[in-house]
Specification:
Elements: H1 7-28, H2 49-57, E1 62-67, H3 81-97, E2 100-102, H4 131-148, E3 152-157, H5 162-177, E4 182-185, H6 193-201, H7 206-209, H8 215-224, H9 255-277
Length: about 280
């Protein structure tokens, strides 16, 4: 014989049901109680649900979904490099578009195999999830944002292994929803041809430009989060870099280079979003 549910659990269930019904009723009734402004922001995490609703109804119906990454970046850069860079870029992209909000940065992204550890996972501090898990998180976030009423959802990744999974999630939702809302994988943001050309024009070579924790990303972090970089921690000789998680020569990084390359990335993302949505630069 099944024992009756405990009185406390029954009461909790009724309270949760009433709370849910109250919330739905408030939304359905168009609850209009004005909220004291917390701040002037485009970041959803710093807004109330009322502010988000009102922004969407006012035509701010594009949302940027940035993803970063937590990984080793040599002895001179913090593990949250990608998060800081993409958070700054997302705010700037939203501001240039003029009708966009920014979702919180998704930090847990694909980093490769665990056993044996691949790439950055061989270094302490790197944290990752399998690519299908990452794609599933993007999908769930997008489904939530669709419920809120956003008409354009933009995935923007600052980490190479995230790009394919990001495109997969956008394609799946695009096929399912038929463009209502539109889901974009803003891959032009991560394409590095323009940054590489910029550095080559300044006299850099493929060897100095490198591939990881080097001139491009170090300069970008210096520009947007200078406290996350300490070039004095690098060895004086390039021959001593082996085993430090650096591929290239980050000693040649500067804030000015970071500013220039961030402008290239933001500009490319804004151009892609405008082209995909028929927007005209204001």
């Amino acid at each position: 014989m099944t024992p009756p549910p405990a009185r406390g659990s029954s009461i909790r269930r009724r309270c949760l049901a009433l709370a849910g019904a109250g919330a739905l009723g408030a939304v359905a009734a168009g609850w209009r109680q004005p909220a004291r402004a917390l701040s002037v922001t485009r970041e959803m995490a710093d807004m109330t649900w009322v502010e988000v609703r009102d922004a969407i109804q006012a035509g701010v119906d594009t949302v940027i979904v940035p993803s970063g990454g937590l990984e080793q970046n040599g002895p001179h850069m913090v593990i949250g490099k990608h998060d800081y860079i993409v958070a700054w870029a997302a705010r700037r992209i939203a501001a240039e578009l003029g009708d966009a909000l920014v979702a919180p940065v998704l930090s847990y992204v694909p980093q490769g195999d665990y056993d044996p550890p691949a790439g950055n996972l061989a270094f302490p501090g790197t944290m990752g999830v399998p690519a299908p898990v990452f794609a599933g998180m993007l999908e769930g976030i997008a489904r939530s944002l669709k419920l809120a009423g956003f008409r354009t959802i933009c995935f923007i990744a600052d980490h190479g292994p995230s790009v394919a999974a990001q495109a997969e999630a956008a394609a799946k939702l695009g096929a399912e929803w038929g463009g209502r809302p539109k889901v974009l994988a803003v891959d032009s943001y991560y394409a590095d041809a323009a940054e590489t050309a910029y550095l080559r024009a300044q006299g850099e070579t493929d060897a100095t430009i490198g591939e990881h924790a080097t001139i491009a990303d170090t300069s970008e972090l210096m520009a947007v989060h200078p406290g996350g970089v300490d070039l004095s921690r690098l060895p004086a000789s390039l021959s001593s870099f082996a085993g430090l998680g650096v591929v290239g020569d980050p000693r040649r990084s500067t804030v000015a280079r970071g500013d220039a390359m961030m402008a290239l990335k933001v500009g490319a993302a804004v151009a892609q979003i405008r082209a995909a949505t028929g927007r005209v630069a204001g």
